[in-house]
User: Fold this.
Amino acid sequence: MSVSLPYAVDDAIRQAIRQLPPGYWDFATADTKEWTHGYHSYPAMMIPQVARSLITIIQQHQPHIQTLFDPFMGSGTSLVEGLLAGLAVTGSDLNPLSRLLAQAKTTAWDPDLVQITVDRVIRHVTQVSISEADWPQFDNLTFWFKPAVITDLARIKRTIETTVNPAIRPFFWVAFSDTVRWVSNSRNAEFKLYRLDEPRLAAWNPDVLATFQKVLARNQVGNARLFGRRPLPPVSLHDSNAMDLSGILGESFDVMVTSPPYGDSRTTVAYGQFSRLSLQWLNLPIKETTPAPNKLDQAMLGGQAARALAHDLPSPMLQAALAAIAAVDPNRARDVLSFYQDLDVTLREIARVMRSGGYQCWVVGNRTVKKVQLLTDQIIIELSRRYGLVPVVDFTRVIPNKRMPKENSPSNQVGAKVTTMNGEQIFILRKQ
Ligand SMILES: C[S@@+](CC[C@H](N)C(=O)[O-])C[C@H]1O[C@@H](n2cnc3c(N)ncnc32)[C@H](O)[C@@H]1O
Assistant:
């Protein structure tokens, strides 16, 4: 048997990517909700076909690989695609909602059992009587939900808790969580929490049970499809901070496919804020170390501004960008530095848990701060060298306009479109 040298495999991967037709990575007309990908919205989701193509290319050149890792799994896109490619998948994310979504999206329940349970839930839910004493206790409950909506959500929650087998509950909790989002007083088109304006709020009268039923029916289709692909490889999910993967053994994974946050939650995508209402309703059992729903964003990468601008990160690209930002706004420069300092710690951790010779596939957004472009792909490539990672290929995926409507804006500005990011960088590194 001939053994290919690592750099020959690198070359072959580079060639395979270069030979793809122009526009291959746009996936402008692709169905991004197929399989279980459409279960629940989530900010800055990866396009499933991007993950799928990356996995396929790596598998073509390393047919023996068995395990995939995503340290920022979010809603679990790359994990679902890993499963479909026959890989055992492990994912992690600091956001407890992410873990619930990834769990539901990677599990295939018997569709008949799901249907029987859905029928029972729908029959039961209208009979549950709820008084104000049964409402959940969290700040601003009535600011974010109308009283009739709270009562209906409480009915659904009670029904799931009392009539659904715990093994199948994640399927129902995900539908409940998506329902919470649609029926709240927040502007559903935006990922940050903004309340509807007064005229729209006055007319807001969502049908909670109909919304829940619609979400369930939609998700049943995805579940049935995944069920048809059994047996599925094993799934392992963690709620670790990517800066501390000490719960995972070194040299564990053959391939990584991930999209990290674009920057700190405060000025880019507020994952915690997006998830807060769902998490407050769900009240999921979480580890003591997991931050409370309203503290999640501070715990994410770059959540705490750096105290000073001095640093020892070995990235000339970052250094130049920080100097340019600091010249106009030193505080913003400290925010940016903090994000890359945290990201650097995750690079070390990810390098540790990846197998030597394994490939890391990154999908990142290069954002602009104070008119200075932060080339996160280049910065990661520079920072990763000291952790034994060599760059294999780096290219731009143009995001077709139709994928960047206002409602998909990951910006935190009210109604803002993403004008600073109309493409994303895809790059592959190999651990030596
Ligand atoms: C771009 S999103 C990933 C989206 C995912 N690829 C998908 O398709 O849904 C980035 C994720 O990083 C997570 N995150 C941010 N800081 C983190 C940290 N320090 N440790 C672990 N996860 C973190 C966020 O909760 C978010 O889910």
